[in-house]
Structures are given as structure tokens and as C-alpha cells.
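forwarding from the other thread:

> can someone predict this with flavin-adenine dinucleotide?

sure thing
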Amino acid sequence: MGGDEEFIPTRVAIFQDMTNPLDLCDIDSLLSEDERAVRDSVRAFVNDKVLPIIGDAYVEGRFPKELIAGMAELGVLGANLPEEYGCAGLNNVAYGLIMQELERGDSGVRSFASVQGALVMYPVYAFGSDEQKARLLPSMAKAETIGCFGLTEPDYGSNPAGMITRAREQADGSWIINGAKMWITNGSTAHVAIIWAKTEDGDDDGHSIRGFVVPTSTPGFAAKNQKGKLSLRASDTSSLSLQDVHVPADAILPKSGGLKSPLMCLTQARYGIAWGAMGAAMYCFEEALSYGGNRVMFGRPIAGFQLQQARLAEMVTEIVKGRLLALHLGRLKDAGKLTPQQVSLAKRNNVSVACDVAREARRLLGGNGILAEYGAMRHMANLESVYTYEGTHDIHTLIVGQAVTGLAAFE
Ligand code: TGC
Ligand code: FAD
């Protein structure tokens, strides 16, 4: 094995020369200085505050609420919404980089920010009255008000058009809402819930879907933590029940109308997920590369074996492709040219790639790969939720299928 003694230092030296193996194609050069600065500040937060605690939070099955104030201070909540509402007013590439870095920490941490920004602040911004925007957005950017988004129901997941939840208008213009929502991120943490319900005045099979801002302290509103999750354990996932929940006339989001409104919110969140999934994959690749360079078996670092190099080469290739796709969509979004179908293509691809990368990283780590001390298996399990929520992989396949054939296969 004399040859191995020379071989090992050579390989270690190559690792040391590669300052950033993740950026083999120099994607950084496509970012502006400001975009890189945003990315670096969130990366530092994740390294300092998230990574040291997230493995334990995951095992304990709790969302680490102690991170909320820091996220708000960094300006990551609703970061691509305008400054006049107390938000950071960043472009969509910087926003995507924030999602990437948060999910490098944990999908649950990115989920918290996605829901708050893309699924609660965005509908208030897009469909709310001036009064709702002024009251809610600055307070949500500071995390003084936490929100959740209730679309999915026990019997209507992929097909939200069938929802049962109803809002009945009263003679004085107030509303009474009845129904149940399931799988709601931030559901037990939230102060307000955006509840999507059918009213009786619309044109969707005689009903219109409208959004309501419901304070979670309203009598008849209850949230229950979902027990038994083996994925996204560091996230609050809850079921909601609304029994004769009475809200005032100004609870309705006046510019919401039809299924298109919640689907527009999903497009915002799915865009962030296309970036976020790459963050999870980047963490897993870096962990696998570092482990492979240090773990010696049969007298050499395992990263020196061709089988492990094939794993690492596949991972880094797919990550580069996925990041370029996310960046391209970010530039399209900033130019006002992004379509929901493009977002579906990217969510579908990047989450699927991240699932594969996380699984391969876990395998490269051998026995250690099943421990919470390392990130690969936590990311691998989390990404199964990400694969399912915000439109399952199958649903995005059908959306892309419809985009290229002109034929809808949902019904
Ligand atoms: P369809 O007839 O196709 O569409 C109705 C209207 O909406 C328009 N539209 C969209 N607009 C914006 N963005 C999108 N993504 C849009 N998709 C459709 C469409 O053009 C139409 O407009 P108009 O003007 O003609 O009225 O509706 P459909 O009932 O056939 O549904 C299609 C389908 C299956 C694609 C849709 O229902 C769907 O996307 N289902 C998946 C459900 C889903 O993604 N749920 C997510 C719940 S929230 C969540 O998971 C949060 S996880 C958060 C976290 O923790 O990060
Ligand atoms: P179903 O719709 O029952 O799907 C089951 C299977 O059937 C899937 O494989 C699906 O792809 C497949 N399928 C469905 N329709 C078709 C078809 N036409 N053709 C082929 N296959 C099909 N929702 C919210 O509203 N707010 C939230 O904050 C939220 N957070 C979530 C957090 C977590 C951790 C999870 C797991 C889910 C969350 N969701 C949330 C719900 C999520 O969006 C739904 O789980 C998702 O849309 C799928 O719905 P479903 O679980 O009812 O599955």
C-alpha cells in the first residue's frame, strides 16, 4: 500500500486548492454585489444560529421559534415586497438566494419564511385593502404578527377547487366561516390565518373562492399540532377547525376572487422553493464532499474511489443545473416575464434533484449518515414534504404536460 501514502496527500491538496467546489461553473459571477451581500448575510445567520441547534430541534420535533426575531431583523420576511410597507424591497434573485440559504439550514426554517412572505404577506399585498396592507405588512415584516395559509382540506389537497369551507355573508356585511383545513404550516404559531373559503355570490360552480384574514384568537377557531411527522419535524404543521367563526366585513381580502387568487400565491411560494431546494442540496453535497475527503477506508479517503466520485460528480452537476435554472427564472421574474408553468417546471426539477442529492449524500456517509448530528438524512426526510407540498411532483408534471401539449390531464 506504499502508493497510497503518496496518493492521500495529493488528493487532500486538491481539495484545499478548490476554494468553492460547489461553484465549479462560477455562478457567483452572474450575481450582483448586492445579491452576493444578501446571500452572505443570510448564510452567516444560518451558520451561526440555525446549524448549531437544528439537529436537536428536529429530533425534539419542535419549530425553533428562537430564530424568528433574527430572521425578522435580517429582513428576510416578505423581502421582495416594497419598502413602503416596511419590507426589504429586494429583487427576486436576492429573495431566491435568501430561500436558498435558509433551506441550506433546514426546509422547516425556509417554510416558516415562505409561508409568512409568499403565502400571507403576498396575498395581503396583492388582494388586500390599503388599510389591511398598512396594518398587517409592516407588523408581519417585523414578525410581530405571524401568519399561516389555509387552502388544503382533509378531502381536497391536489384539487383545492373542491373545498368545502364556506363563508356566509351576514346582513351587516360580516361573515361566518365554517370548515376544516389540514397540513397548515405555522398553524399553531400564527396570530392570523389567511383562510380560503367559498362564498355564495361567485361564478365557480355557483361559488366564488375568497380569502379572509382571520385572527386565530376568534372564537370558534382552533389549531391542533399534527403529531407523528417523520419529515419537516422542525416545523409547525397543524390542522385548523373553524366553527361559526364570525369575522367583520373588513376581514375579506377585497381583490381576491376565484381559485386563481390562492394559485397566484402558490406561484410565489413555489418560486422560492425552486431556490430553497438547491440550498438543501448544496448543504448535503458539501457535507458529503468534506466527509469523503476525511473518511479513510482501505487506506485512502473514500472520495478517492471512483464510485464515490461518480456520486459527487452527479450531485454537483445537478446542483449547478438547478441553480442556473432558478437564477434564470429570477431574472425573468424581475423582468415581469415569469409564467406559473415555468415555476412548476423548476419546482418539480429542483426538488426532485435535491431529494436525489440528499439520499446519495446520506449513503456516502455510511453509518454516520443516519445520525441527526449530520444533515443529510434530516434534509432527505424534509425534502419528501417539499416534494409533496406546494403541488406534488405529479401535479407539476401535469402542469408542464399541459403547457407543452395544450391538453389538461387533471380531470
Ligand atoms: P385551473 O382552471 O387550471 O386554474 C384556475 C385559474 O387560475 C389560473 N392559474 C394560476 N394562476 C397563477 N398561478 C398558478 N400557478 C395558476 N394555476 C392556474 C388559471 O389560469 C385560471 O385562471 P382563469 O383566469 O382562467 O380563471 O384550476 P384547476 O382547478 O384545474 O387546478 C389546476 C391545478 C391542479 C394545477 C391546481 O389546483 C393546483 O395547483 N393544485 C395543487 C394544489 C397545491 O399546490 N396546494 C398547495 C397548498 S399550500 C402549501 O402546500 C404550502 S406548503 C408551504 C411551506 O411550508 O413552504
Ligand atoms: P392528494 O392530493 O390526496 O394526492 C395523493 C397522491 O395522488 C399524490 O401522489 C398525488 O401526486 C397524486 N395525485 C393527485 N391527483 C392526481 C392526478 N390528477 N393525477 C395523478 N396523480 C394525482 N397546505 C396548505 O394549504 N397550507 C400549508 O401551509 C401547507 N403546509 C404543508 C406542510 C406539510 C409538511 C405538508 C406535508 C403539506 C402541507 N400542505 C399545506 C398541504 C399540501 O399542499 C398537500 O399535502 C398537497 O397539495 C397534496 O395534497 P394531499 O396531501 O391531499 O395529497
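The beta strands are 147-150, 166-169, 175-185, 192-204, 207-215, 221-225, 237-247, 296-297, 300-301. thats all i got for now
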